Amino acid sequence: xxxxxxxxxxxxxxxxxxxxxxxxxxxxxxxxxxxxxxxxxxxxxxxxxxxxxxxxxxxxxxxxxxxxxxxxxxxxxxxxxxxxxxxxxxxxxxxxxxxxxxxxxxxxxxxxxxxxxxxxxxxxxxxxxxxxxxxxxxxxxxxxxxxxxxxxxxxxxxxxxxxxxxxxxxxxxxxxxxxxxxxxxxxxxxxxxxxxxxxxxxxxxxxxxxxxxxxxxxxxxxxxxxxxxxxxxxxxxxxxxxxxxxxxxxxxxxxxxxxxxxxxxxxxxxxxxxxxxxxxxxxxxxxxxxxxxxxxxxxxxxxxxxxxxxxxx
Amino acid sequence: xxxxxxxxxxxxxxxxxxxxxxxxxxxxxxxxxxxxxxxxxxxxxxxxxxxxxxxxxxxxxxxxxxxxxxxxxxxxxxxxxxxxxxxxxxxxxxxxxxxxxxxxxxxxxxxxxxxxxxxxxxxxxxxxxxxxxxxxxxxxxxxxxxxxxxxxxxxxxxxxxxxxxxxxxxxxxxxxxxxxxxxxxxxxxxxxxxxxxxxxxxxxxxxxxxxxxxxxxxxxxxxxxxxxxxxxxxxxxxxxxxxxxxxxxxxxxxxxxxxxxxxxxxxxxxxxxxxxxxx
Lengths: 313, 279
Description:
Oligomer: heterodimer
CATH class of the largest domain in chain B: Alpha Beta
Structural class of chain B: alpha/beta
Strand content of chain A: under 5%
Order of helices and strands of chain A: HHHHHHEEHHHHHHH
Largest interface: A-B, 30 and 36 residues
Mean pLDDT of chain A: 86
Helix content of chain B: 25-40%
Low-confidence stretches of chain A: 303-313
Number of domains of chain B: 2
């Protein structure tokens, strides 16, 4: 009962945000939070449920951003087409990167995914005819969904919220299915998983490509929202932020990364109140969470430690 | 067939081999772990595979189950029959899907999953539904899932794990994990079960329980090949025993024959001690 009430309050508060605060700044941060929820869930699938430290999320994110930006700038296509295509591009890069990287050891996997991301950044920097290199792509228009342009901050907020909600919903379906169990099983004990006839490789490839789909979608949203992208979207800092969100939020749980995305998008903004102390405070807060909530902030929600213990066990 | 094997409960039906190991050789650099091992395991039997440490028992399991590539030789499932499968050419997943299931010397369960989910994971390895059907839970999938849940519930009951069904498997005691391991193996509906030290490190009461389970499993028609250092258990349960020593088949036969074979004592205890024992 109590949880139902809490959930209802959270849902109402989230939906009512635009009514309470019309401030473009607040809505901007709120929309960014939604994108980060999508990205964090993308990493969570591979890292939390799959137990694989992937540094390829920025690769999917960047590919999605460039695909959506180029299709919209050059061809003027509707976002109802380009968003799914950006997502599909994420899936394809997920398969392309997953195929070699999932065949090597867990340690080499980290390096292969990082290399793939850096490689794509190089391509974005040098394939100037298409990407305009380091100049980046500017003036990306507002997305049009079936002809309706999304321009107002409130509309953006609702779009971002809808996408985040959809991604969390899809994730819950996947992790609650046989695939979810198979992912955790492959993470916990690869040899046993093979011995009971689980196709560990395919399971991981599935998780990886779904992760690509999510991050590709986030990239498309981001490109239209910020209206400018450059090869920096493939940067390592994206991975860094996402790792903080997923691990400190609660990796291998459904809501942990959501909590992580909200806290670590909002926190740096709140800390702007103390500009000189900002970085220091941020670091101290990270340390405190690691020390006192090592399995993630989501454990505060009183949720049972879901399927995942330590991701690298 | 190797040897002519007087059979303890020897009926003619049991003579059909379900597993044939033929000249398997495995070397690691200069070390020869298996040096042309050949034997047949009779369908529906409990067969023992014993030998001192380092004699190649686990390596043989690894070669049969696809976890290691052998250098020469073959292992066949249902040799000579129409549905014969050459196990040694398959990856571990394919061996498991051919319904040859192994356990590991070092006990393995999925510690992050609940006990029930461990069983469900073991059961649903290849139902052949599409990914979309699985994720969207179409009615066929839900039906299959329900059937598997019922089966898991029965298994939990049988192995006295019902009260722990929703606990993470990592929280079980060692003995309970041993039971779960066996229950998981059975959920895969195996034809042949390769058990690597099923009672190692288990207290005597639980050994008794596990023994009963093993006999029941055999009575359901599953063939068991057991590697075990608890010779008392092996001599009591197994209808036939193969003895490995330094990668070769030293001898084989009914428990009584093997137990009194001086070569077996020698292999286990060393020449001098064996001589002393034999007076």
